[in-house]
Specification:
heterodimer, A: alpha/beta, BirA Bifunctional Protein, domain 2, eight-stranded mixed beta sheet, three-stranded antiparallel beta sheet, 40% helix, 22% strand, B: alpha/beta, D-Maltodextrin-Binding Protein, domain 2, six-stranded mixed beta sheet, five-stranded mixed beta sheet, 30% strand, disordered C terminus
Chain lengths: 373, 215
């Protein structure tokens, strides 16, 4: 069975491994319908990665949409219990245009959501599961952690309009210090605030080092609280040995601030050129659908993993039996069954297909030299 | 090994010149004009020569770890990459240009001919101005002369081409120069190498500045 699991495409293998991992931590599988009323997404457009959704008209004339996001549907549909938190994981397809544009794609993602009272311990557990999830994809990975409040508080100190703040956010998320300075100069942003932004932008590294550097800055109460929270999480995360080498603090990770509040994180593995995991604390989204609800979670993007982690089929256990139609008899069936029971993968062919070159070829009826007889 | 996407042409030559001066040499580069990949394991560098407008695509998809690209292309394409450093050269401006005596008719949408469709739309959006974009791929300057458009949005370096075609800069949208960009995943896994290159890139700039100050 282990050989079989190892031979599966990366995406399928990971699905099994992550399901097991999440169930071990008390998460239950949640199924979401493939489509929802379009009005649900149009009402919550601010929380979507892209405002383009695939729509169709149902038999009753109602406009429906193929789901572009899981979290929205899950938060709305989850069965919540007042006395205890709800832990759910999913393995679903979403339909949206990829980041950077292009045609619609069916994107497979797996993820978990923790709904209810979210303490630092529970956030740390989510981060720990994110580390474990990345470790199951590749030995070489990084989980990059940030805190939305840290940057938004510094941005608030700039005292600029939405459009300028958006420009500043663009520079921060691109680590673009040169244009950030120009914007600050153009809009007469106080030099000390500009310097604080530039300093945050230049920090990226192991949590201890970055937190120490942050502590030397002149931080206001909100910014200090965000740093203290990150420090507490890294203490709790020390229980997971992966955190020591694979956790990075980088304040420039800033996502959709209408969606996230508090911690925000994304994960990278060496062979994939984009983040394969993203998540964070999203009370704003959860609370807009179910007032007062807090939540934290993440998604793992399984889509491109088969491309970057191709599985080479194990030819040593593959057999092709070349056989004419007239020779397809009970002895062939018995022979195939015996070989399968020995652990071989067996195909009956008239002649060897091109894609199976390299596998062991047998003939039926068998010759005396046949080693599997 | 750092994989670097270099733009083919004048900008690429300048960039390679700068990189080779700070230790990222690859002697076979440009020796064989048909070859597009060059490697120097001793310096830990592999160069790809690509079309300038494709540099960001190579970097975004991780085929190259870093690349050098004009800000005009970054503004137009908005690739999800890090923009780490402004190299300062290849300096020019993204401008609105039109006939010298141009008077805008505000009762109808402005017709704008450009290669930079997104940049033009974004700029006029900030000006609350309705426009009709006419996408062209070259010889943009003749569009107003032939009545195809009212104005153009294009890169202006010295302004000679504009002047020779009876046009003038009407508005400056943004300054443009060559930028060092990095793939977001590569930045994590090749952090030390990328940061070292970034720091070294700043060094000759200082030297040049100090030479200028003394001259």
């Amino acid at each position: 069975m282990q050989d079989f699991i190892r031979s599966l495409p990366k995406e399928e293998r990971l699905t099994l491994e992550l399901s097991r991992l999440y169930e071990q931590y008390g998460y239950s599988k949640y199924r979401v319908a493939k489509f929802e009323d379009y009005s649900f997404y149009s009402d919550n457009r601010d929380f979507l990665m892209s405002d383009r959704v695939i729509t169709f008209t149902d038999s009753d004339g109602k406009l429906k949409a193929l789901k572009p996001d899981i979290t929205l549907s899950l938060v709305r549909g989850a069965d919540l219990h007042a006395e205890e938190n709800t832990r759910l994981y999913y393995n679903e397809q979403v339909y949206r245009t990829p980041k950077g544009g292009g045609d619609y794609r069916e994107i497979r993602q797996m993820g978990l959501e923790h709904l209810g009272e979210i303490t630092a311990y529970r956030e740390a557990e989510t981060l720990s599961l994110a580390l474990d999830s990345l470790a199951k994809i590749d030995d070489h990975f990084y989980l990059v952690l940030s805190h939305v409040d840290l940057l938004t508080a510094v941005l608030a100190e700039c005292g600029q309009s939405g459009a300028v703040t958006e420009e500043l956010v663009g520079c921060i998320s691109a680590k673009n210090m040169h244009d950030l300075r120009r914007i600050c100069e153009r809009h007469a942003i106080a030099p000390d605030v500009c310097e604080k932004l530039c300093t945050l932008l230049s920090y990226s590294g192991k949590p201890g080092k970055v937190l120490q550097a942050l502590s030397s800055l002149k931080l206001n109460e909100t910014e200090r609280a965000a740093c203290d929270h990150l420090a507490r999480l890294t203490e709790l995360l020390a229980v997971n040995p992966l955190a020591a080498d694979h956790l990075i603090l980088d304040p420039t990770v800033i996502g959709n601030t209408r969606y996230y509040n508090g911690i925000l994180f994304c994960g990278y593995v060496e062979k994939v050129p984009a983040a394969v995991l993203s998540g964070g604390r999203y009370d704003r989204l959860a609370g807009s659908i179910r007032p007062g609800l807090c939540a934290v979670g993440f998604a793992v993007y399984l889509d491109d993993l088969n491309l970057y982690y191709p599985v080479t089929p194990d030819r040593s256990r593959q057999l092709v039996i070349l056989c004419e139609t007239a020779a397809e008899d009970e002895t062939l069936a018995r022979r195939v069954r015996a070989l399968v029971e020995k652990g071989y993968c067996v195909q009956i062919c008239r002649k060897l297909p091109a894609h199976l070159h390299g596998v062991t070829v047998l003939h039926h009826p068998a010759s005396k030299e046949d080693p599997t007889c | 090994m750092l994989n670097i996407a270099l733009p083919k042409g004048r900008l690429g030559d300048k960039v390679y010149d700068r990189l080779s001066r700070i230790g990222y040499t690859c002697e076979e580069l440009y020796k064989d004009s048909r070859k597009l990949i060059f490697e120097n394991p001793a310096c830990g560098v592999r160069y790809f020569l690509v079309k300038p407008s494709d540099v960001a695509i190579y970097v975004f998809h991780g085929a190259a770890d870093i690349g050098i690209v004009g800000k005009d292309i970054l503004e137009e394409e908005h690739p999800d990459v890090y923009e780490l450093y402004d190299l300062g050269f290849g300096a020019c401006r993204m401008c609105v240009a039109g006939p010298k005596d141009f008077v805008e008719d505000r009762t109808r949408p402005l017709r704008v001919a450009t290669k930079f469709e997104h940049t033009a739309k974004q700029y006029y959006l900030t000006q609350n101005r309705n426009i009709e974009v006419i996408k062209l791929n070259g010889s943009i300057e003749i569009a107003p002369l032939l009545g195809l458009s009212d104005v153009i949005v294009d890169i202006v370096e010295t302004g000679t081409t504009l002047r020779e075609n009876g046009l003038d800069v009407l508005e400056v949208i943004a300054p443009i120069s060559a930028r060092l960009i990095a793939n977001k995943a590569a930045y994590r896994f090749k952090y030390d190498e990328i940061r070292l290159l970034q720091e070294r890139l700043k060094e000759p700039e200082k030297e040049i500045k100090s030479t200028e100050e003394h001259s």
